[in-house]
Write a structure and sequence with these properties.
single chain; about 5% helix
Length: about 160
């Protein structure tokens, strides 16, 4: 397991993206993620819906060459599995507005989620704490409420 890491949430969203500018996502719909209430993926992007409108959350990653079962080590409130297609050799966590420049803990943005290179992946996002401060702002002075676990494995497994 990698993490947990601090990361920034903006506009109730965060992403998995290949290398490039996340600005093009502003016009993408999050309807599919809204349908399951948590996340959805596609070619070179995935989106997750956070509870807080803005602030810091925590995330951990499990990367595996073989299929993973849902994590039972925590009392997860929401779990969604989806496909992700990486046309490049890298995929990273991304905030809607880009990483917070003032955040010292940037490790979450450095984890390469396309660890097996270009191809098809399965991802499963686990979440808890999204209902604690819905649409609010996670203040730095308060304990971080939202926690996520993203499991990633090669779809060929």
């Amino acid at each position: 397991m990698k993490g947990p890491y601090r990361f920034s949430v903006a506009e109730n969203q965060f992403y998995v993206l290949g290398d490039g500018d996340p600005g093009h996502l502003k016009n993408r719909t999050i309807t599919v993620a809204g349908n399951n209430g948590l996340s959805a993926g596609g070619k070179d992007h995935a989106v997750a819906i956070a509870g807080v409108s803005a602030g810091t959350a925590m995330i951990s990653f499990v990367l595996s060459p073989s299929r993973l079962g849902p994590d039972a080590s925590q009392p997860w409130e929401d779990i969604a599995e989806f496909a992700y297609i990486s046309p490049t050799e890298t995929a990273h966590l991304a905030a809607c507005m880009g990483p917070d420049e003032e955040t010292d803990d940037m490790e979450a943005y450095d984890v390469d989620l396309a660890f097996a290179g270009p191809g098809d992946y399965r991802m499963r996002l686990h979440a808890r704490g999204r209902g604690i401060n819905p649409d609010g702002v996670q203040e730095d002075s308060e304990p971080i409420a939202e926690h996520y676990l993203l499991q990633v494995w090669s779809a060929a497994a």
